[in-house]
User: Which sequence fits this backbone?
């Protein structure tokens, strides 16, 4: 299984009064990694895949340990744990080489912005997502595999 790797910079404004990354900021980090992952197949090469929009149906996050500000980016690994006709589940780990800060998952629904309704995953999108698929019982996200 291949994992998508995203180097996410930390910003001073991400910190809370206790000196670590605020829990709500981690959702933004997940969004940055997810957009980078999904849009690698998007219109740069003329493909319409994932360009029509998507909506988040669910987030699940386990905060494992605090992350404090530093100049080096944190690594976000992403992979797919489930693909259905009209949704997919992405699992993540926000980590350094030797420790994990967050384990999370997101259910994403492709969305037709013109029609304002969900749409099915295309064959092209499904083929791309399957490259990152981990359907094993232990996909690295524990109970978060949805």
Assistant:
């Amino acid at each position: 299984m291949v994992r998508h790797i995203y180097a996410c910079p930390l910003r001073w404004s991400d910190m809370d009064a206790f000196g670590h990354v605020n829990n709500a900021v981690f959702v933004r980090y997940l969004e940055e990694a997810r957009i980078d992952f999904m849009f690698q197949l998007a219109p740069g090469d003329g493909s319409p895949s994932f360009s029509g929009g998507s909506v988040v149906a669910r987030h699940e996050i386990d905060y494992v340990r605090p992350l404090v500000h530093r100049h080096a980016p944190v690594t976000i690994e992403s992979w797919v744990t489930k693909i259905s006709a009209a949704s997919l589940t992405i699992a993540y780990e926000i980590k350094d080489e030797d420790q994990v800060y967050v384990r999370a998952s997101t259910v994403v629904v492709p969305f037709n912005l013109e029609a304002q309704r969900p749409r099915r995953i295309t064959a092209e999108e499904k083929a791309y997502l399957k490259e990152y698929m981990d359907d094993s019982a232990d996909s690295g996200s524990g109970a978060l595999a949805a």
Summary: Confidence is low (pLDDT under 50) at residues 137-146.
